[in-house]
Amino acid sequence: GQNIDQPTEMTATEGAIVQINCTYQTSGFNGLFWYQQHAGEAPTFLSYNVLDGLEEKGRFSSFLSRSKGYSYLLLKELQMKDSASYLCALWAAGNKLTFGGGTRVLVKP
Amino acid sequence: DAEITQSPRHKITETGRQVTLACHQTWNHNNMFWYRQDLGHGLRLIHYSYGVQDTNKGEVSDGYSVSRSNTEDLPLTLESAASSQTSVYFCASSDRRGGTDTQYFGPGTRLTVL
After folding, report:
1. Minimal Cβ distance to B101: which of A42, A95, A101
2. H/E element holding A54?
3. What b/e sequence results for A46-84 when a residue is b if at least 16 CB atoms lie within 10 Å of its CB, and e otherwise?
4. Residue A95 and residue B96: Cβ atoms within 8 Å?
5. Which residue among A11, A60, A76, B52 is the one 20 to 30 A from B8 at the CA level?
6. What is the pLDDT of residues A50-103, one digit of tens each?
7. Quick check: B45 and A44 CB within 8 A?
8. What is the 3-state secondary structure (H, E, C) of A6-32?
9. Which residues of B touch A88 (CB under 8 A)?
């Protein structure tokens, strides 16, 4: 099976940087996805890591270390609209995603 | 523009009734998925399909069924609704074009079983 852990909630200030960690235990996977979900809305794709290292997409970056069972999503220059839940998901055999419980990020002025 | 839609967006039903939630995508994706999302559990996979006539059980499939008669649609049926099935349901679709298998989600259906 797969076990994925994320902090439940984080608070940060507008303009700051926040790092959302995701740790996992699994026998094998193809890659790791990050999704953003605003309250009452659908999850939307943010980033994907298949190899170890950092993937940068504008203000958002995602990092993966397979040997450490660890990923993080880095949000820079935080804006009020970044207040949302951030979901970590493992992509495993059969094209299936297994999601963590999500991290709710609250951005304060 | 290609998209994925769900209907209805909100549904209230009674215990024991059969309910069908619709999911329709116009991306011509082979893979389609149904999830439920509850506080404290995140997104959990109910059923999924890799193509027409193919269906598979996910993590929490008891009490649910799906059928895939064409590429565009994967309706989710609750055979006899229970209060434990009160949840938000998301449909998603994906394809391997471009190398990754990014899933794109519909807007969700909020189901309340009384």
Report:
1. A95
2. strand A53-57
3. bbbbeeeeebeeeebbbbbebeeeebbbebeebeeebbb
4. yes
5. B52
6. 999 999 989 999 999 999 999 999 999 999 999 999 999 998 877 788 999 999
7. no
8. CCCEEEEECCCCEEEEEEEECCCCCEE
9. none
